[in-house]
Amino acid sequence: MQRRNFFKGAATAVTTAVAAASVSRVAMAALPEPASQSSADTAAPLVPPNGRPYRPVVTLNGWTTPWRMSNGVKEFHLVAEPVVREVAPGFSVNMWGYNGQSPGPTIEVVEGDRVRIYVTNRLPEHTTIHWHGQRLPNGMDGVGGLTQPHIAPGKTFVYEFVARRPGTFMYHPHADEMAQMAMGMMGLWITHPKAASPLIAHVDRDYAFLLSAYDVEPGAMTPRVNEMTDFNIWTFNSRVFPAITPLVAKQNDRVRIRVGNLTMTNHPIHIHGHEFEVTGTDGGPVPRSARWPEVTTDVAVGQMRQVEFIADELGDWALHCHKSHHTMGAMGHDVPTMIGVDHRGLVSKIQKIVPDYMLMGERGMGDMGSMEMPLPDNTFPMMSGTGPFGSLEMGGMFTTLKVRAQLGANDYRDPGWFKHPKDTVAWEWTGKPLGADAPRQTPPGSASGAPSVRKPGTDSGHDQHH
Ligand SMILES: [Cu+2]
Predict the structure, then answer these.
(1) CA 459 to centroid of ligand 1, rounded, Å
(2) Ligand 1 mean position to 81 CA, how many Å?
(3) Gap from CA of 301 to ligand 1 centroid (Å)
(4) How far is the CA of 282 from the centre of ligand 1 (A)?
(5) CA distance 248 to 406
(6) Using CA of residue 160, residue 166, residue 171, residue 175, what is the dihedral sign?
């Protein structure tokens, strides 16, 4: 749902304790009406309403803002403001963002477009916007204090430049950066090529998302912004699994995924069942001679990676950060490792005092996905997400790529879980246990295929390799 009425939208979006700066109605009237978004759902791609055609991107759990044409200039209006972001159902966070959401809306333009962006500051402190990766006049680069004065609360600044090269970019503040990005201020910028390019393939599906991390204590609603390393909420576009929309593709579609990293650490983004190539970065398209196949690409802080592959394997394939802590949900930092510790008898003793007491992690941590632990209000389980075969034991930076034989060209709906062909799912072995007479691999050092047990001190004196 997009609300085009700024004042109505802002009135409902600003529900935090932070008082937003007042912005004059008269001053706003001449500006492009800022679109606002209240939903964290993935919006349908915005087919370009006028100007040159292109294949629009799908922003995971996000949206693309419309523009208005003004004497040949594409005009946008971003409003920096406090927002409430639904990170997962039942877990909303007080963030700062743009136009009702964190991340802000995706901006999509075409190479060569002259672009004018009005930025209105409704935050309680000053801000700026830096257009990460763009070629532009120095004074449009958005570094508060260096290339421009800060945008004070209540003020609107104008940025104007030509989108000179195609690619995947980001925008974020260059003012009180640590706090403002820790609060969710960021967005994607896509510049589509103006003509066919030998380095830019036509794709059937084009997905985009940003990596962001927050430190929200379980039960709290506002991130700690002075955090340096101990973030506990790991997100794709300020959203955690299983609340992240799956990527879908029709079999043999060429798929592009654009990922940008505005967290404080790197994220190795990993795909299952396919190999991709990095076809571009925020520096532009990668020369074909410099591409190689990968199944994981590390996205360092402040980088963008654009990967492409043919989605030719049917199924529900995991797509996730390979740092295992980053596919977990909210957790305190004080959970000791309990694997291998024998607690038998201890729990029943404690339960005499604390009836609800449960022991975590004695046999690994996997049980936590199915344990019904009482949670504080406004958080989500550390590992959650249920698949067709049970708990996925995942939260955070994880989603799925769903490849289907039948799918409409513009159909981005979740097709449900994959229906596996007969005899293609790993199964439990329930046959006869392997006995002494069953075929065995020959252990190294034995001369025959017969099972042999080597006793200490009876080395045969030679090794045989089979
Ligand atoms: Cu990660």
Answers:
(1) 48
(2) 27
(3) 11
(4) 19
(5) 11
(6) negative
Q: Give the distance (Å) from ligand 1 centre to CA of residue 152.
A: 34
The owner of tokens 């000053």 is 126
**Residue 323 CA, ligand 1 centroid: distance in Å:** 5
Residues lining ion ligand 1 (Cβ < 5 A) are 267, 321, 323, 326
Q: What is the distance in A from the centroid of ligand 1 to the CA of 300?
A: 10
132, 135, 136, 141 alpha-carbon torsion, rounded to 10°: 20
Does 169 have pLDDT greater than 70?
A: yes
pLDDT digits (tens, 9 = 90+) for 316-334: 999 999 988 888 766 544 4
Distance (angstroms) between ligand 1 centre and the Cα of 265 equals 7
Distance from C-alpha of 447 to C-alpha of 463, rounded to nearest angstrom = 9
Q: Among 12-16, 137-141, 296-300, 326-330, which stretch is predicted with the lowest mean pLDDT?
A: 12-16
What is the Å distance from ligand 1's center to 435 Cα?
Answer: 45
Angstrom distance (rounded) from CA 398 to CA 245: 10
* CA 192–ligand 1 middle distance (angstroms): 28
User: Which of 287, 281, 237 lies closest to 262, judged by CA?
Assistant: 237
Distance CA 272, CA 266 (A): 19
Q: 31-45, 306-320, 323-337, 446-460: which range is least confident on average?
A: 446-460
Q: Which residues pair with 311 in a beta bridge?
A: 253
CA of residue 266 to ligand 1 center, whole Å: 6
Quote the CA–CA distance of 180 and 172 in Å, as a whole number.
9
Q: How confident is the model at residue 53 (pLDDT cuts 50, 70, 90)?
A: confident
Q: Is the pLDDT of residue 390 over 80?
A: yes
Tell whether the model's pLDDT for residue 364 goes beyond 70. Answer: no
Total residues found in the chain within this entry: 466
> What kind of architecture, by CATH, is found in domain 2-195?
Sandwich (2.60)
Query: Which secondary-structure segment (H or E) carries 235?
Result: strand 233-236
Output the CA 347–ligand 1 centroid distance in Å: 34
pLDDT per position as a tens digit, 393-433: 778 899 999 999 999 988 999 999 999 999 999 998 888 76
- Mean pLDDT over each residue of the chain, to the nearest integer: 83
**Sheet strands (E) in 27-129:** 36-37, 58-59, 68-70, 73-88, 91-98, 107-110, 114-121
Beta-bridge partners for 293? 277
Three-class secondary structure of residue 432 per DSSP: coil
